[in-house]
Structures are given as structure tokens and as C-alpha cells.
Amino acid sequence: MLRIILTILIVLAILFNLPLVYGENSNIFVSVPLGSTDLACASTNECYIPSIAAVDVGGKITWSNNDSVVHTVVSGTPEFGPDGLFGSDIIMTGSDWSFKFDGFDSGSYPYFCLLHPMMTGVVNVEESKDTILLRDDQIVTETQIPDWIRNNAAWWADNQIDDDTFVSGIQYLIKEGIISVSSTSSSSNTTNEIPQWIKNNADWWSQELISDDEFLKGIEFLVENGIIVIS
Questions:
Q1: Taking phi first (over 0 means left), then psi (-120 to 50 degrees means alpha), and beta for anything else, what does residue 14 get?
Q2: What is the pLDDT of residue 231?
Q3: How far apart are CA 206 and CA 17, in angstroms?
Q4: Domain region containing 215
Q5: Is pLDDT larger for residue 131 or for residue 89?
Q6: Is residue 135 part of a domain?
Q7: What CATH number does residue 62 fall under?
């Protein structure tokens, strides 16, 4: 009887183009824990828990934002940016985002948070133990600022993320050498308030109305005035 039932299920799956997923890794959950914006989570690989998630081909992973701030889940790396394989919009506090890995080859797929790029994780499809390799389409370009950061600038300008979230993400990218600025000296300025003109620049830059150099002038201003601290 069991064999007959399985045969019927397989026939239905073929007729209706349904994924044949029945392994133990067909429905996986990943937590974004409280405090994931702390740089310490990067050193302990606890920005996403588990940091390496194994899933069957055609299986589903659900990311739950248990942190007190918003996050994203985007395939790729901070160095090369999103690769377009999968990606969420902003995941609000207490919300989930799911993705089914239909049509994926076995292998390792790195991902990160656009808003907090120190947060990285890996999806292993079919529990592959292969070393994470960068695909041929992940080529370093000569641009000063990765293009994917325009999304962050647009969200910040539209007040979808707060000043601290935007600043902490930019600060990390500068420390890692992903964004290059000419000034790294901080003043003794006692205010952390960001001038409105910098937010306006971020909005214009996200729409490609001003150049990278003009946008970087605002970032350099934040560094020079101690709002972004490079240690």
C-alpha cells in the first residue's frame, strides 16, 4: 500500500511540476538572534544561527528576525555584492522570510545582510561539504563603491532604516577596505547628528543623480567629524 501511495505522489508531482522534497532537510529554520548587529557575532559566526544551513534541493529555508532591528538576507558576499540568486527585502523585527531552493545545484551559497554586512552565512544545498568558491560572475570591479550599497542609501533616505544602522554598515565597509575614503582622522566633535545634506546626497546618489565621488564627500565628512569611527 505504501508503495502505491508513493507512486501516486510521484506521478502527481510530475504532472503538476511539483518539487519532490521529502528529505530530512526539506524545511529548515535560521534565526537572526538578538544583538546580531554587534561586531562580535562575526567572530563567533553567530550573526545567523545556524551560520551554515544545510537544505535539500527544492527544500525551503525560513529566516526569522528575532533581533530588535531590521535585517536582510541576500546571496553573495560584502566584497562582491549580491549575485542575484536569492534575496529578501527588509525583514522587520518579528517577521520571517522564506525561500525555496528549486533548481539549485549542490554546493555552497554564501549570503549576507545588506544593512549589516558583517553578518554572513552559508547555505549548503544537499549538505555539500565543498569549499565555498566564488563563481565566475563574481568579478572585482574598479568602482569605489559596490553598486548594491545604493539600496542601503535609498532605504536610509526614505527613513526605512535609522542613522545608526546606516552608519554602522558604512563603518564596517570602510574598515574592511570595501569602501575607500581619503580621510580616516576623527575630530573631537561631540555631536553625532548627521546633517540633512548628507541624507539628501544619499538619496540623490541612490538615484544616480550624483557621482560616487560626490557621495563619498559626505562619508568623509562623517569620518572627519567622528560620526563614523575608523579604528
A1: alpha
A2: 62
A3: 40
A4: 149-224
A5: 89
A6: no
A7: 2.60.40.420
Q: What is the pLDDT of residues 17-48, one digit of tens each?
A: 444 434 457 889 999 999 888 888 888 888 99
26 with 71, same domain: the answer is: yes
Mean pLDDT for all residues in the chain = 78
pLDDT for the residue 191: 54
In terms of domains, do 163 and 216 share one? yes
- The number of folded domains in the chain is 2
If you average pLDDT over residues 185-198, what whole number do you get?
Answer: 66
What Rg value do the Cα atoms of the chain yield, rounded?
Answer: 21
DSSP letter string, the chain? -HHHHHHHHHHHHHHTT-----STTSEEEEEE-TTTTSTHHHHHT-SSBSSEEEE-TT-EEEEEE-SSS-B--EEEETTTEEEEEEE-S-B-TT-EEEEE-TTPPSEEEEEE-SSSTT-EEEEEETT--PPP---TT----S-SS-TTHHHHHHHHHTTSS-HHHHHHHHHHHHHTTSS--S----------PPPHHHHHHHHHHHTTSS-HHHHHHHHHHHHHTTSS---
pLDDT at site 145? 74
How confident is the model at residue 128, as a pLDDT?
37
Residue 140 has pLDDT above 50, yes or no: no
